[in-house]
Amino acid sequence: MKSLYCMVITTAPDRQEAENLAEGILNNRLAACIQMTDIRSFFLWEGALQKDDEVVLCIKTTEARYRDLEAYIAEYHSYDVPEIIKLPVTGGLPGYLSWLDSTTGGDWEGKKITNPKNK
Fold first, then answer.
1. What does the radius of gyration of the chain's CA atoms come to, in whole angstroms?
2. Sheet-wide strand order for 48-62
3. What residues are paired with 52 via a beta bridge?
4. Whole-prediction pTM
5. What's the 3-state SS for the chain?
6. I need a surface site. Which of 55, 75, 89, 115 has the fewest CB within 10 A?
7. Structural domain boundaries of the chain?
């Protein structure tokens, strides 16, 4: 069964960029809810071990809005290769899933995506 909903995970280098991304995503109705928290990331980049403080964003949206959400993050994120991982949502409270639909669908689909903040 194909999922109609997904959660997208991305990280930002600091709280300000994370909040700017979240506001732009929500203002464009690319998602219904975003939660964020501070994390410490360990990763390999250009052959070297990196250790950085970051902010992780857990973004709840619909499959219908995913491509526009991915494009938005790629355009407005400061990283050369931002983490964008999509996880299917295979179940959930029907009322919550209905809220995801109503918040991200309708008149918002197909509208020009904007960012009120500078990149």
1. 15
2. 33-45, 48-62, 5-12, 85-89
3. 41
4. 0.88
5. CCCCEEEEEEEECCHHHHHHHHHHHHHCCCCCEEEEEEEEEEEEECCEEEEEEEEEEEEEEEHHHHHHHHHHHHHHCCCCCCCCEEEEECCCCHHHHHHHHHHHCHHHCCCCCCCCCCC
6. 75
7. 5-106
| Assigned CATH for 5-106 | 3.30.70.120
Residues sharing a CB contact under 8 Å with residue 64, sequence separation 6 or more, in sequence order: 4, 104, 105, 109
Confidence band of 70 (pLDDT split at 50, 70, 90): very high
pLDDT digits (tens, 9 = 90+) for 76-96: 999 999 999 999 999 999 999
Q: Measure the CA–CA gap between 82 and 86, rounded to whole angstroms.
A: 13
C-alpha distances in Å from residue 33, one per residue of 21, 41, 71, 97, 104: 12, 23, 18, 11, 10
Do 116 and 23 contact (CB within 8 A), yes or no?
A: yes
